[in-house]
């Protein structure tokens, strides 16, 4: 039992702050070596490039939700990691914001090879203090992520009033009174509160979901949720790109749950990285393009009722 590798499953709805927390974990001086598995919903991999610390081994699973189509991939990656036991101290799995954590957690009990070598340490859910109450109304995944959590990081407290914060915490407590909860800005939580908690409680989960240990768990996705990925083969013109992205998120903000991208500007040695949650947009130049790396520009939008054609044409028209 004791030499099983601890696995932390990091979950939370789109844009809540999972990558922010992951980067915090990877950059703090903990002297540990983590293997990281990142799963995202869009077809173009962007998240893995936003994870800092090039020394970490990041395994990427695109094109599907970790809890459904790519569960086989997860098992294969975990099996591969187990064979190299001793090379790292723990595994962190960051799921897409649209994943139901139950089938992910299930993998650590149902697959014998995985169960023999790894133990699920905790499900850590990052919750967006500003948007969670809305998502609890329209996104069943958001509720499951809260229900399954052993630790909840209630993040973005800077974007709400103290009264709103109390109200969202009360909503969370009504769904999950057991998890430890930390209120944070930029996921600033002591790592010991997140890692190696030995917190996953199978009995509680079986009470919540009696068929947890049975095969055939079906997870129904939000059918309307779509992702649009567009790539420009080369650089984009900031004079065109900036007004386009800011106008798009202002006008389509309510439908755009999440957007992110990495773009190349002419004569700029660094990559421009932008991220948005609804109409709140954030962008900065960071990290130089590597020598010999192709300076392509890519964006991903996730949301409902997206006008794919307009987004595609709009971004392609920003080409430098
Ligand atoms: N104002 C504010 N912004 C934050 C905070 N934490 C994270 N953000 C921003 O919120 C955006 C989303 O953060 P991420 O860490 O990428 O969220 P995520 O959950 O990994 O997103 P997905 O992987 O797309 O689901 C980024 O622009 C962050 O800089 C916070 O406490 N306050």
From TrEMBL:
The keyword Hydrolase applies. One of its GO terms (molecular function) is hydrolase activity. Keywords: Chaperone, Hydrolase, Nucleotide-binding. InterPro entries: CobW-likC_sf, CobW-like_C, CobW/HypB/UreG_nucleotide-bd, P-loop_NTPase, Zinc-reg_GTPase_activator. SMART domains: CobW_C. Transmembrane segments: none annotated. It catalyses: GTP + H2O = GDP + phosphate + H(+). It holds the Pfam family cobW. Residues 225-319 form the CobW C-terminal domain. Zinc chaperone that directly transfers zinc cofactor to target proteins, thereby activating them. Zinc is transferred from the CXCC motif in the GTPase domain to the zinc binding site in target proteins in a process requiring GTP hydrolysis. Belongs to the SIMIBI class G3E GTPase family. ZNG1 subfamily. This is GTP-binding protein.
């Amino acid at each position: 039992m004791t030499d099983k590798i601890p696995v932390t499953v990091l979950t939370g709805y789109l844009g809540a702050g999972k990558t922010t927390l992951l980067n915090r974990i990877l950059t703090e001086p903990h002297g540990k070596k983590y293997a990281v598995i990142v799963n995202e919903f869009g077809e173009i991999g962007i998240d893995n490039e936003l994870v800092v610390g090039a020394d970490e081994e990041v395994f990427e699973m695109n094109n599907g939700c970790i809890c459904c189509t790519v569960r086989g991939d997860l098992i294969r990656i975990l099996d591969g990691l187990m064979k190299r036991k001793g090379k790292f101290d723990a595994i962190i799995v960051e799921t897409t914001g649209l994943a139901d954590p139950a089938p992910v957690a299930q993998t650590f009990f149902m697959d014998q090879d995985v169960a023999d070598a790894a133990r699920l340490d905790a499900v850590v859910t990052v919750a967006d203090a500003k948007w969670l109450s809305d998502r609890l109304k329209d996104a069943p995944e958001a509720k499951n992520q809260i229900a399954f959590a052993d630790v909840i990081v209630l993040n973005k407290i800077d974007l709400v009033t103290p009264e709103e914060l109390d109200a969202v915490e009360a909503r969370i407590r009504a769904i999950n009174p057991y998890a430890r909860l930390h209120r944070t800005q930029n996921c600033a939580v002591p790592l010991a509160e997140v890692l190696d908690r030995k917190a996953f409680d199978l009995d509680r989960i079986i009470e919540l979901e009696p068929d947890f240990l049975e095969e055939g768990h079906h997870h129904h996705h939000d059918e309307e949720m779509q992702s649009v990925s567009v790539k420009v083969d080369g650089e984009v013109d900031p004079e065109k790109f900036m007004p386009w992205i800011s106008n798009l998120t202002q006008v389509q903000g309510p439908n755009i749950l999440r957007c992110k991208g990495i773009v190349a500007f002419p004569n700029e040695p660094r990559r421009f990285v932008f991220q948005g949650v609804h109409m709140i947009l954030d962008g900065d130049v960071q990290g130089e393009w590597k020598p010999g790396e192709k300076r392509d520009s890519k964006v991903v939008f996730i949301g409902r009722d997206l006008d794919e054609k307009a987004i595609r044409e709009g971004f392609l028209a920003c080409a430098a």
